């Protein structure tokens, strides 16, 4: 079958993109290297266990399905509204898990694979793609992109390397920070009050240092062992192991920061830097870590000012492959230097199964509109889809850009003072209204007709 567009990668993003295009009437070639039977063994990844499409590797849950008070639940609802294959099969193979959307993984992946393989507009080809396609294409190869294709992507995007340890520092919701303790300042008052500062006494610092040393860490997987740290980023616990004062001369250095309560420098300080344009999310500077999530929450809440911290993302360190999307992609997910290419899924820098599928859905819909000679405007930033897309294509600078799950910190803030208990519902109500308006835009006003002044018209005046 000849094709109108080539989708590379049969994970959640690629499968969803292919489905959206095929449902719109376009002929799709979907390339998936798993199951190709290549002689060099390069037809699989170290993380996957089957050749099924949209395989869930690490978890059997798409997280919360609560669309009333949860950003990921709202994303589920939006994707169902737009005819998502991934959500359709997840719902069909759902297993009891409270408010979470958990699935029978074998039934779910079989359902996706059968739907894709049986669609009359999709040609599923088991092959490894080693070079970027020349024609219209969506690259959705995920964090374990084959080395040859990763090299080609690096050459096209100017990236020095795409495989590295993705060092993530925790991100805190600003509204959960205690400003009776924390304060805004920059060192020596240079550059404005750009950082939130949380002071520690000597005893607090020593206890925190010990917690870093003693906390349980996530082990490396075998296939991560030879991947270098990105830009030399060291986990904070590795720095702590180099000496008790290492952090006080590094990311927790207090020099030049006068605590307004004492007028003196603290013994140590934890700094947070603004992470998004709205100022709702703040990154804990230098705190990339391999601590287990439970230990992170427990330990980081011992920091004065963060005792009630709510985390939009916890720290992590793992092998990843993604591009500098805010610099490289436009609002339609096209590579600016080669607009016939779109990117989707985790390679764009979104985090999570459902987020990957969501970006695949948007890439497919954008491409379908373009093939039809029209332009689909991006979903509004008040929607979960729009907020996630905005983060990828413009919500951060390339220098600070890191993978992110969908969360309300990516949405435009709710105007005015609101009760915390009501705010999440306000986000979801606003998001549903914005999606409805996007799907049903008002008709343009009719153009005025020229007045008919002919003699015949006068007869009927």
CATH-scheme architecture of the largest domain? 3-Layer(bba) Sandwich
| Mean pLDDT value | 86
Distance between the termini: 61 Å
CATH topology of the largest domain: FAD/NAD(P)-binding domain
| Largest β sheet strand count, sense and barrel closure | 6 strands, mixed
Tally of individual domains: 2
Question: Could you give the count of β-strands?
Answer: 17
Helix and strand sequence: EHEEHHEEHEEHEEEEHHEEHEEHEEHHHH
Description:
It is a single chain. This protein has two domains: 5-162 and 322-435, FAD/NAD(P)-binding domain, CATH 3.50.50.60; 168-319, Elongation Factor Tu (Ef-tu), domain 3 (Beta Barrel). The chain is globular and about 70 Å long. A hairpin with a 2-residue loop joins strand 16 (334-335) and strand 17 (338-343). It is built from 13 helices and 17 strands. The longest helix is centred in the C-terminal third of the chain and has 20 residues, at 420-439. The protein has helices at residues 12-23, 71-81, 85-92, 105-117, 147-157, 202-214, 236-241, 293-300, 325-328, 353-371, 384-393, 420-439, 455-459; strands at 5-8, 28-32, 61-64, 94-95, 100-103, 122-126, 137-139, 163-168, 171-173, 183-185, 195-200, 268-274, 281-284, 311-313, 316-321, 334-335, 338-343. Helix 2 (71-81) packs parallel to helix 10 (353-371). Residues 227-232 and 455-461 have low confidence and may be disordered. It has 461 residues and is an alpha+beta fold. The termini are far apart. The protein has a six-stranded mixed sheet, covered by helices on one side.
């Amino acid at each position: 079958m000849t094709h109108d567009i080539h989708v590379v990668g049969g994970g959640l993003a690629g499968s969803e993109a292919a489905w959206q295009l095929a449902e719109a009437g376009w002929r799709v070639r979907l390339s998936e290297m798993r199951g190709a039977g290549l002689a060099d063994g390069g037809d699989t990844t170290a993380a996957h266990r089957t050749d099924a499409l949209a395989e869930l590797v690490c978890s059997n849950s798409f997280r919360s399905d609560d669309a009333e008070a949860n950003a990921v639940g709202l994303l589920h609802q939006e994707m169902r509204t737009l005819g998502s294959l991934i959500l359709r099969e997840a719902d069909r193979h759902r297993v009891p898990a409270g408010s979470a959307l958990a699935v029978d993984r074998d039934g779910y992946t079989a359902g996706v694979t059968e739907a894709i393989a049986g669609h009359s507009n999709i040609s599923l080809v088991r092959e490894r793609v080693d070079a970027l396609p020349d024609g219209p294409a969506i690259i959705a190869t995920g964090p374990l992109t084959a080395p040859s294709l990763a090299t080609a992507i690096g050459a096209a995007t100017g990236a020095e390397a795409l495989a590295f340890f993705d060092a993530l520092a925790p991100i805190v919701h600003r509204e959960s920070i205690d400003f009776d303790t924390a304060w805004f300042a920059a060192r020596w008052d240079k550059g404005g009050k750009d950082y939130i500062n949380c002071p520690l006494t000597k005893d607090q610092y020593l206890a925190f240092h010990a917690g870093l040393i003693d906390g349980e860490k996530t082990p490396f997987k075998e296939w991560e062992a030879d991947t270098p740290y990105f830009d030399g980023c060291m986990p904070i616990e590795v720095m702590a192991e180099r000496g008790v004062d290492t952090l006080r001369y590094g990311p927790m250095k207090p020099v030049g920061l006068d605590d307004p309560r004492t007028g003196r420098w603290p013994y140590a300080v934890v700094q947070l830097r603004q992470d998004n344009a709205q100022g709702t999310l703040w990154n804990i500077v230098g705190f990339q870590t391999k601590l287990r999530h439970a230990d992170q929450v427990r330990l980081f809440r011992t920091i004065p000012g963060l005792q009630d911290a709510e985390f939009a993302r916890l720290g992590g360190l793992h092998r990843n492959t993604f591009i500098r999307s805010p610099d490289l992609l436009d609002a339609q997910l096209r590579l600016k230097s080669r607009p016939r290419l779109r990117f989707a899924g985790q390679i764009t820098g979104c985090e999570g199964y459902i987020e990957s599928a969501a970006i695949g859905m948007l890439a497919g819909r954008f491409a379908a509109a373009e093939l039809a000679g029209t332009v689909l405007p991006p979903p509004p930033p008040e929607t979960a889809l729009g907020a996630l897309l905005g983060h990828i294509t413009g919500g951060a600078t390339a220098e600070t850009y890191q993978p992110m799950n969908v969360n309300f910190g990516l949405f435009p803030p709710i105007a005015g003072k609101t009760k915390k208990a009501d705010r999440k519902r306000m986000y979801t109500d606003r998001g549903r209204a914005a999606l409805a308006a996007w799907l049903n835009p008002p008709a343009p006003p009719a153009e005025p007709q020229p007045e008919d002044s002919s003699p015949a018209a006068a007869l009927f005046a």
